[in-house]
Each structure stands twice: as structure tokens, then as C-alpha cells.
Amino acid sequence: MSSPMALPGANAADDSRRLELESCLREAAALPGVDAETCRWLEEKLGDEVFNLVVAGEFKRGKSSIINALLGEPLLPAGVVPLTSVVTAIRAGPHVRVHMEMRGGQRLTIEPAALGEYVTERGNPANAKGVERVVIDHPSPWLANGVRLVDTPGIGSVYEHNTDETRKYLPQADAVLFVASVDQPVSRAELDFLKDIRAYAGKVFCVLNKTDYLRPEELREALAFSSAAVRKALDAEVPIFAVSARLALDGKRAGDSEALARSGFRELESTLRRFMASEKTDAWLSSLVRSLKRLLAQARFALDVESKALTEPLERFEANVAAFREEKAKAERVRADTQVLLEADARRLLKEDIEPGLDSFMREQQAHIGQCVDRWFSDLKKQPARQLQLGLEDRVIQEIRSAYESWLVREDVELSRAFETLCSRFWASLQESVDELMRHSSELFAVQFEGIRTDSRWTTESHFYYKFWYEPTSLKLLSSAAVLALPRMLAGPLIVRRMKATATELVETQAGRIRHDIEERLKKSVHEAERQMLRQIDTTVGGIDTAIANGIAIRRRSAERAADRSSAIDELRRRIAALDARLVRVAGVQGMG
């Protein structure tokens, strides 16, 4: 794994802590008795930390221009009409590459110059090309340490799907750059959207763009008005930065420090760097440190038990081993019971939380779709029968797609949280069971045990499998050739009646498919969480069994071998103690509290 790259101006001490933790993880993985697979997993997490910095706001405020200024090049299309129709995520990479993730799972790689053909309303109206998401690799230092810049469609334009796409992404935001414009007063819609953002993002920064449009006195007046409006709407102080993204980008590309200074962009960048370098780092590093310290404590405990097997009177030690086996059997029964409870809770989540809401939504949509078909018929009734049928079919499919996508976005947030809560409770119960076994063992074998609580790492991001949409099949030939051959006045009502019946059936079919999909993915998610958590528990308990068996076997062979193994155990203890001391420095005083 490559070493984490530092942001320019980032906290050098934090970068040093990252590198030190990476070194500790590698050394720990090489120690006998330490769970090397979990160490490698933690090392991946150290390199894969993702921090979503989402840029959002109304259309025509310059969101894409803000991102271009941060990157120092005109990567994203910008213009005076509503542009972005899909979410674009920009992540770290050795060079610029643009990946298109399409509906249906297809993936394409395109030239950066062709990006506008997919992410703008002009090149991809109403997202007709079916782009699910755009992911861009970019070598900017801004993207170091897992930072991901996310450009979202503008809200409040004539394109409602743009607003929907932006609201879908808000639950994934760790921080939001809310972009407004100094040449237009902050609107009520923008303030309401800010309130929505605050419900999801841990940190919000307000950016007033286009300062180069105003004279100094006008800029001061606009800043005062916007600051007061935001403060009143949110009942809180939110950092507000007045910038010109155009000047900042021009200054960076030309190496013009005076233009960059006039842009006001340096203060924004400096604040963002301080936030990402300090406020989010301590808790994250401390969580990883606690996980590694627990692995080291377990390995040290197994070494201590093995040492007792090498030195204690054999008869007494074996009596203690028999008592240990009894406690281990109790822990295994608790583990089995906990596993059953997790699976039962997952089924209850589906039956009591998901299914009633989905059934209610299905009935609402069946009533709604009938009203829509009547309204659409009024718009299309002058068309020939075949065009009327095709026009209604297209609108029905689009309406059902939009309705279920919106429902799934809302439900996914709650379902993800509920699943994570289940896994966290399961993990806490398993840890407590193992810790109880370790505490009892420490009394039996007269060795010290240090219980260290760790967070559940089985989060929805990595282990909740979810698919948002099944493409509805075509309604096909709703009407017979005889119906299509009738005069328009007679064919129209027949087509409408059959369309309503088929659309109602399609709404129900989609609900059934989604319910089945959620059930299967929930099962898979639970089983994957169980597999990974139980493997770690088995590794811990198995380490004690191995230590007991090794100690007794070596002792029975010869005293000389027992003495050599005791010396090796002492050396391993020293290495673990040295790693522990280094981890205290990595976590800091607050992290180890």
C-alpha cells in the first residue's frame, strides 16, 4: 500500500500519525499470534478512508466552477444554463480518467473532453443516456487521504430530476460546500435547502461566488445580507466565504498570485484544509488504534497463557484448562444464540418496517398512476391510436421509475442505519461474550487481560448489498390490432382503460421485485457480517487453544525446548509492548481516553 499523501498545508503531525500507524499495522501483522488478516483489513481502511466533500446549491451559481478552481483546471463543463444532470465524483488517481457508470451495470471510460456529452442537459437531456454516476480520477493534492469532491446537479431549475438527484446524494455527504451567488440575494428555496443539508452533513460551508461581478460596496452589502439570512434560517453561525471561482482558476493556471488573492479563494482553501486535516482525523485514527490494540492484547494474553503452560505444575495447569473448556462452551452457546437473534431481527426489520411501508406506497402509487393516465390522455388524445399508446406507455414507465427511485432513496437511508444498528449490537454482544471468557481465563491462569472496546466495522457502506431499480419491462402491446384500428374517439378510452389496469399491475410487480431484492440482499448482508465477525472471534479463542496446546506439547518434549520457547515469548512480549507504546503516541491523549 502506498503511503498516505498529505494535503498542502495539512497538519504535518497528523500525516506523521498516519504513517506511524501504517508501520505499526505492518509490524503487527508479522507477529506470530496476531490476526494478520484483520491487520491487513485495517491497513486498507487507513488508505481507503473516503471523505465526501459535496458541492451543492441552486443552478447557475457556479458549483462546477468552484470545483474547477479547487482542482486548478477547467475539468467540469460550466455555463449559463442548467448543466449537470448527474452526480460526478472526483477521486484521487495518478492521471485524469473519466469513468461512466450506466444503469444496468455497464461501465465506460471516455475522454475528458467528452464529459459534457454525458453530464449536461445539452449533451444528455433528462439523462436519456442512462448515466448512473460519473467517477473521475484526478492527481490533485486536494484528493489526498481519501477526499472525494462531488459535483451535484443544481436544484430549483426547470429540470426536476436534477433536484431529485442532488437530494439523493445528501445522505452520503460528510461536509457540504453550499454555493450561492453574490449577484442574487439568497432565496427562500436556498435557505430551505440549507436546512435539509444540515440534517445530513456534519459540516456546512457557505460560498458566495461571482464576487468579480460586484463593486466593493455592493459586495459588502451582499455579504451582510446573506450572512444575516443564513444565520436567521439556521439559528447558527455557518462559515461564509466570498469568492470568485473564475479569478481563482485563472490565477492558478497563469501563476498569477495577485489574481488568486483577489479571488478570495485562499481563505476558503485554507479553512477546508484545516477542517479535513484536524476535525475528522482524531476520531478516525483512534478507532483504528483501538482495533489494533485489541488484537495485540489478545495476542499478549495467548502468550501469557502459553508461558503458564511452560512453567506451572502440569497437573494444576491441566485442571485449569478443563475449567477453561467449560467456559468456552458457554461462550459458544452465547455466540450461537446471538447469531440466531441477529437473523431474527433482520427478518423482523423486513416484516415490520419495510413491507408495511412498501405496501402503503404501492397502493398510493396505484391510485396516483390512474389519475396520471387520465391527465396524460388529455394531452395526447388527438394523436393516432398507436402514438397514443406509445406515449402513455413511456410516461407510465417514467412515472413508476421516478416514484420507486424516490422511495428507495428515502428508505435506503433508514434501512442502512437499521442494518448497521443490528450489526453493531451483534458485535457488541460477541465482544462482551469473548471478554467474559478472557476475564474468566485470566483468573484461572493468573494472567492479566486488558479489555479494549472497539467500534463495529460492519457498516452499510461495505456490507449492505442494495440495488435501487429493476428496469420495468415494456408494457408491450396493450391493445389488439382491432383496437388500434378503431377510430380515435373509440380506441382512446379502451387504450386508457387497459393502460390503467396494466400500470396498476406493473406498480405491484415492481413492489414485489423490490421486496424480494431487499430480502435477499439483507440475508446476504447479515451472513457476510456474521462470517467476518465470527472469524475474528474464532481467531481470538483459537489463539488461546493453540497457546495451551503448544505450551503443553513443548514442555512434555524437554525442559530445554521449554526454556527456548520461554525466551521467544519474552521477545514477542517486548515487541508487543513497543508497538503499544507507539500506538499511544498515534492516538494521542484524547484518543486513548
Short description:
The protein has 593 residues and is an alpha/beta fold. It has helices at 12-29, 36-48, 63-71, 116-119, 160-169, 188-198, 216-234, 245-254, 257-263, 265-279, 281-311, 314-380, 385-445, 460-463, 481-485, 488-557, 559-591, and strands spanning 51-56, 88-92, 97-102, 107-110, 131-138, 147-151, 175-181, 203-209, 240-242. The two termini are 30 Å apart.
How would you describe this structure in keywords?
single chain; alpha/beta; Rossmann fold; disordered C terminus
How would you describe this protein?
- The protein has 593 residues and is α/β, with parallel strands linked by helices.
- It folds into two domains: 50-279, P-loop containing nucleotide triphosphate hydrolases (Rossmann fold, 3-Layer(aba) Sandwich), CATH 3.40.50; 338-526, no CATH class.
- Helices cover 65% and strands 9% of the residues.
- It is built from 17 helices and nine strands.
- Strands 4-3-5-2-6-1-7-8-9 form a nine-stranded mixed beta sheet, with helices on both faces.
- A hairpin with a 4-residue loop joins strand 3 and strand 4.
- Helix 1 packs parallel to helix 11 (281-311), helix 1 runs antiparallel to helix 17 (559-591) and helix 3 (63-71) runs parallel beside helix 8 (245-254).
